[in-house]
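Exam review. A common question shows you a sequence with its structure tokens and asks you to describe the fold in words. Practice with the pair below. Do the first one on your own.
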Amino acid sequence: MDAQSRQHEILSLLNQQDRVEVETLSALFSVSSQTIRTDLRELSDRGLLSRVHGGAVRVGNAETRAYADRRKHNAEGKSAMAQAAADLIPDNCSITLNIGTSTEHVARALSAHRDLTVISNNINIINIMMGGRSKDLILMGGAVRQSDGAIVGEEAVDFISRYKTDFAIIGASALDPDGAIMDHDLREVSVARAILRNARTRILVADGSKFLRSAPVRICALDDLDIVITDRPVPEEFAEAAQRCGTRVLIAQQNESHEND
């Protein structure tokens, strides 16, 4: 069997199961482990699968696992930030939450609030809040990204533009010390910008690890936000930029929160 046929068979196997193993494929096709690793590398370079230790997984399955892993990352810090955000939200108001693991924590922290109108482009947030005390749960229209339950794109932007909510709470993938709020996906960023434009009070929740990351697409600047909630002291440059534009920075820790000095 030539490489093209073998690679086609590998993809067929991945359509039937979540994962394939190098050693299993080596025995199945009677070729060396190195040959299989070469096949997997070439398929990965073409975006047809994702390599993992000892084998490969389907692309969509890898993305879903990555999102699940992000949920576990710094769960205590995210819970503290979520509680700090929830403390700012009164009963009987409207709020928009975008996609993200930090905003999912905020949704859980809002479970005791009464008579909220909640709009989101995140199926997970709507599911978290179902059966609670909210008055209305509204899911934006558009195509669903299966890896994380996000609804992104122009349909979602048009949808949120029909509303003006009391609060917007968004997350981000990266924070620059100069105050730029960044993300990876332009479609997702377009929705986040629309959420901010159509809210009276604009809140960012992002843990301190975001200062160690980079992303290419700008969501907004600090002066587009009223409050930033994080879980550790921010870089001096960021704090100074926030002070210049009047954006509050709240440092959330377990069982307490305070403003950045």
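Now try the second one, then compare your answer with the model answer below.
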Amino acid sequence: MCPSPASPRPVPQAPTPPSTDAPPRPQWGMLLTGLLAGLLLSGGALLVWDRPSPPPIAIQLPPTALPALDPLLPAPASPTPAPVVVHVAGAVRQPGVYTLPAGARVVNALEAAGGLSPDADAVAVNQAEALWDGAQVYVPRLADGATPPVIGVSGESRAATVALPESGAGLINVNSATAEELETLPGIGPSKAQAIIANRPYASVDDLDRVPGIGPATLEQLRPLVTVQ
């Protein structure tokens, strides 16, 4: 018998030396940097979010300059003067109360009353005198005698030119005169005439000051024209 060939022997392997490489370490520096960056971004976002809104900005517009007046244009119209209301009494054709335009004169009032009556003493009244609201124009009669015109009394209660009768002639008795006769007096209209009648009797002319609407100025106008006898 032939001998069996010998089995190969396993070759012993040298032991693997332990690895000298250390396991990877986490990158702590990068992690901290990222964490700090995130915290800063979050804090900045919170600051921006919580910051109050700034107040609105008010824009002041420059004042508008007034347009210059064109010298070629007409000037603005002034207010139209109000008309005047006057009482015309005495020797005229149509005694009464008339409304006249501003700037009217006694002659205009006489024309509105129909003109002078035939027995009027025309020279006793200044027909060129200017009128005002509330004035009274009294025209005396020739039968009253020659009487010069009297200058109107100044002030708010002034009357237009009034001719005074001679002493004792043509005086109106305030204790017995009718309302129509009283209305011929300067400054006396229908309402004051009724007030004079309502406050009778009068012991003297000075007692007229108790009549509503008759003040010192009106009383001075009436004094030479009236009597209580």
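Model answer, second protein: The domain at 81-165 is CATH 3.10.20 (Ubiquitin-like (UB roll)). Helices lie at 28-50, 106-112, 179-182, 190-198, 216-222. Full marks require stating both points clearly.
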